[in-house]
Task: structure prediction
Amino acid sequence: MLLEVRSLEVGYGGIRAVKGIDLEVRQGELVCLIGANGAGKSSTLRAICGLLPARAGSVRYGGSDTRGRSVHELPRAGLVMVPEGRGIFPQLTVAENLAMGAFARNDGEVGADLERQYQTFPRLKERHTQTAGTLSGGEQQMLAIGRALMARPKLLLLDEPSMGLAPQLVTKIFEIVRDISRKGVTILLVEQNARLALELAHRGYVMESGGIVLAGEAKGLLADAKVREAYLGEAA
Result:
């Protein structure tokens, strides 16, 4: 098991944002975590990668407990997140942002990986000298994903990659995510667009009010009456 989350609790002040959830991701899977805004999805991802402290429970990545490991150690171990809002460096160029994704690497293949990102995202190659803050929302999302891939992740956490994008760009981003998964990168995807996420994923979890209320194969969740009514906008 690449990722095991057990009885995880996360809070802000007196608010329990995540209430003792269990979640797991196997090597090579694409797993989605869906739910309404405020359900606790982003808090879960931030706790997994060490940006939020867990009040209780455990996170095991690659068989090892992540407690006691600093935030910067986890990307070096292959656990990489693309945060909600993209988190790019707006004053740096596209090329400089991509290079930042490889800051912890000391191998000789960074240049080859940079060219690989340009092949995956031709728009970034066209704009490689452009300041990242002047890119469109879709281009910034491509840059954020490309920067994460420069770290050669074993587990890629994607937090709301479609947020704020036009429908045609949402389709493009999901095509890119599917391609990344097919190339062998394990992915945990948090996404409000439940239909697209479940159509893409192998398995899924449904989160409500800080807890996991449903889990299973993605196809089964797509057919579930509660999911269809609550998250797909279909009448029961």
